[in-house]
Amino acid sequence: MKLAAIQLGKVTWLAEAVEFDPKGKLFLPDFLASIASLGEFRVFPDKSGQYSEKGANFEIGKLGDQRINKLQLFNDGIVMETSSPTQDAERSLLNLMLWAKDAHGVTFEPGMIRRKMFYSEIIAFMDVDLNNLHPVLRKIGSAVSESVTAVNGIQATFRASGVTLEVNSLTRKFPVGQFSVQRRADTPDAENKYFSSAPLKTDEHIRLLEQFEIDVSGLEIIA
After folding, report:
1. Is 156 in the same domain as 64?
2. Both 144 and 162 in a single domain?
3. Considering only Cβ atoms within 10 Å of each terminal Cβ, which end of the chain, N or C, has fewer?
4. In a domain, 197, yes or no
5. Could you tell me if residue 131 is inside a domain?
6. Do 45 and 98 have their domain in common?
7. Domain of 211?
8. Residue 219: its pLDDT value, please?
């Protein structure tokens, strides 16, 4: 596997906002304005300082030398998104909270964050043919190709283009992202370029894709 790009590194900390301001002293409009100034965000909440249903949103900014795609503050958690590994997103979020503690008296210790969620999106080159995952994929692909070609009068070749694993959303209070491996859209198959998403830290995601490539490449090809 050869990494082409990290498209998204996202971390979510689940915690009640009231725990960060247990005595109710934080003046939210000033706090949000201070975050907007610190991160030089191009999109930030209005001066009312009120959370919408989508939280307090900050977009397109930077914290130190780390570019931030999105920062969201909710009543029950904080979300940080970057185009870097998830470890960068979490480090930036930690630095932001330590700054908030020093500059605004926010109550914060890393141990307060009892639940974390990660999400990673990667573009990579992998020498795999997803048709090899199971003989039925090649069989049904051929059947569909023949039928469509016969009906439309043009050559159409269907093949497995992706794999998706997910949890039953009805069993979870908080959504969990899919694990997926998909051929990169608008890219020739010969390039073997794939998009992959996973509810994992970036380094773990990469290791899993490396093993996926080894496992799929080792499967016997059955016509």
Report:
1. no
2. yes
3. C
4. yes
5. yes
6. yes
7. 122-217
8. 76
In a domain, 34, yes or no: yes
pLDDT of residue 220: 60
Same-domain pairing of 113 and 177: no
Between CA 18 and CA 107 the distance in angstroms is: 10
Per-residue pLDDT of the chain (223 residues; tens, 9 = 90+): 999 999 999 999 999 999 999 999 999 999 999 999 999 999 999 876 566 667 899 999 999 999 999 999 999 999 999 999 999 999 999 999 999 999 999 999 999 998 999 999 999 999 999 999 999 999 999 999 999 999 988 898 999 999 999 988 777 666 788 999 999 999 999 999 999 999 999 999 999 999 999 999 887 655 4
Number of structural domains the chain divides into: 2
pLDDT at residue 114, as a whole number: 86
113 and 152 both lie in a single domain:
no
Among 90, 118, 146, the domain-final residue is: 118
Query: Residues with Cβ < 8 Å from 135, sequence gap 6 or more?
Result: 222
29 and 101: one domain?
yes
Rg over alpha carbons for the chain, rounded to the nearest Å, is: 22
